[in-house]
Amino acid sequence: MNWGSASEFFAMGGYGLYVWGSYGFALAALAVEPWLAARQHRHALAVVAESSFEEAAQDDAPRSGAT
Fold first, then answer.
1. N or C: which terminus of the chain carries fewer CB neighbours within 10 A?
2. How much of the chain, in percent, has pLDDT values that exceed 90?
3. How many domains does one find in the chain?
4. CB-based contacts of 9: which residues, under 8 Å, 6+ apart?
């Protein structure tokens, strides 16, 4: 296509809102996804660390009835 000016290009023949809105939504999704993945990863590591800490504390606790 041939546009006469930058405003015609951004208007996209009257469909600019849909075109640029779609690009914006896709860009936002691509920007948020790594942040969400890193947050979930940190949470999973914290859960594993907490459970291993509790396991170690149980292993070190004196047992009743042990000879």
1. C
2. 48
3. 1
4. 3
